[in-house]
From TrEMBL:
It is a multi-pass membrane protein. This is Diacylglycerol kinase. The chain crosses the membrane at residues 43-61, 67-87, 108-129. GO terms for molecular function: ATP binding; ATP-dependent diacylglycerol kinase activity; metal ion binding.
Length: 130
């Protein structure tokens, strides 16, 4: 058995306090957001859309729930984009040669982003109309 307590051994991790876990999780989340901003043009575009959506939603929304729906729908697109980025990264890590399953995984991630954009656009249109 390996005596290094800081390394993961067969899926087991050394115990950490809840505060340490929160701190590490926050740091890893920051790294993920930073990497997406640096390396993913689509994510940067969605961040710009989010920044535009904040003031625009105050003009469109009539209630707090509508405001939440408008902002939340844009954040949802960003969440799905991050998941799609993760899928693409792991598929590319496994291999860059053409593989039908890899292509399906990437296409499914792309379709998920597309559907989230349609949902967000629908929310904006419906709330703006009514």
């Amino acid at each position: 058995m390996n005596s290094k307590s800081s390394e993961q051994i067969y899926g087991e991790k050394r115990p950490v306090s809840p505060l340490q876990r929160l701190s590490k999780s926050t740091y890893y989340s920051y790294k993920g957001l930073r990497a997406a901003l640096l390396h993913e043009q689509a994510f940067r575009f969605e961040v710009y859309a989010f920044l535009l959506a904040i003031p625009l939603s105050t003009l469109v929304a009539k209630t707090a729930i509508e405001y939440l729906m408008l902002i939340g729908s844009v954040v949802f697109v960003m969440i799905v984009e991050l998941l799609n980025t993760g899928i693409e990264a792991i598929v590319d890590r496994v291999g860059v040669e053409h593989n039908e399953l890899s292509g399906r995984a990437k296409d499914a991630g792309s379709a998920a982003v597309f559907l989230s954009i349609l949902l967000s656009a629908s929310a904006w249109v419906l709330i703006a109309i009514y």
